[in-house]
């Protein structure tokens, strides 16, 4: 039984190392609420270039994020989407909400480069979106009963 355990342990350590590396690359900064991170990643009051907008995200993760969508609207308007009827999210949870109308958005996709010199192509769209919403966390505005925490889909 010892040889099986000896072969299993390095694999377990490798998987644990990959998991820790993945968490550090994709995790939000510790001092930011889920809604605050959503706002950083997905809300722009006015359009900015993908290069400028993505620098603000990539500086936290220290890598070039492959793909990101920015909604050209206010956080309050996205939070109002949380008051529409609940629907199932892609992961099966029932805390998603569909926007009432289309909004302008920018889709940024990495083309080349290595952090911090990430290069992006951008595509401007006008579409509806689906967001996952949760109750506010400590540090969020109490102005909303639900706040957006994840951009689940664009339609």
TrEMBL record:
Q: InterPro entries recorded for this chain?
A: RNaseA, RNaseA-like_dom_sf, RNaseA_AS, RNaseA_domain
Q: What Gene Ontology cellular-component terms does the record carry?
A: extracellular space
Name the Gene3D superfamilies on file.
Ribonuclease A-like domain
Q: Is the keyword Transcription assigned to this protein?
A: no
Entry keyword set:
Endonuclease, Hydrolase, Nuclease, Signal
Q: Which family does the record claim for this protein? A: Belongs to the pancreatic ribonuclease family.
- Coiled-coil portions: none
Q: Which residues form the Ribonuclease A-domain domain?
A: 31-155
The protein's matches in Pfam families, at most eight in alphabetical order, are given as:
RnaseA
The protein's organism comes out as Carlito syrichta
Q: Gene for this protein?
A: RAE1
Lineage of source species: Eukaryota, Metazoa, Chordata, Craniata, Vertebrata
Q: Quick one: signal sequence residues?
A: 1-27
Instruction: Quote the protein name from its UniProt record.
Output: Ribonuclease 7
Q: Which GO terms describe its biological process?
A: defense response to fungus; defense response to Gram-negative bacterium; defense response to Gram-positive bacterium; innate immune response
GO molecular function annotation: endonuclease activity; hydrolase activity; nucleic acid binding; RNA nuclease activity
């Amino acid at each position: 039984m010892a040889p099986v355990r000896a072969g299993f342990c390095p694999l377990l350590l490798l998987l644990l190392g990959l998991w820790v590396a993945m968490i550090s690359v994709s995790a939000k900064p510790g001092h930011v609420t889920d809604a605050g991170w959503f706002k950083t990643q997905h809300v722009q009051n006015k359009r900015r270039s993908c290069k400028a907008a993505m620098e603000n995200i990539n500086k936290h993760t220290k890598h070039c994020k492959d793909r990101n969508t920015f909604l050209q609207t206010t956080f309050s308007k996205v939070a109002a989407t949380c008051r529409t009827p609940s629907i199932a999210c892609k992961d099966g949870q029932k805390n998603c909400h569909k926007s009432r109308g289309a909004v302008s958005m920018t889709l940024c996709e990495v083309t080349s480069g290595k952090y911090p010199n990430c290069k992006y192509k951008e595509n401007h769209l006008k579409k509806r979106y689906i967001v996952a919403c949760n109750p506010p966390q400590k540090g969020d505005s109490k102005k909303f009963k639900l706040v957006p925490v994840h951009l689940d889909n664009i339609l």
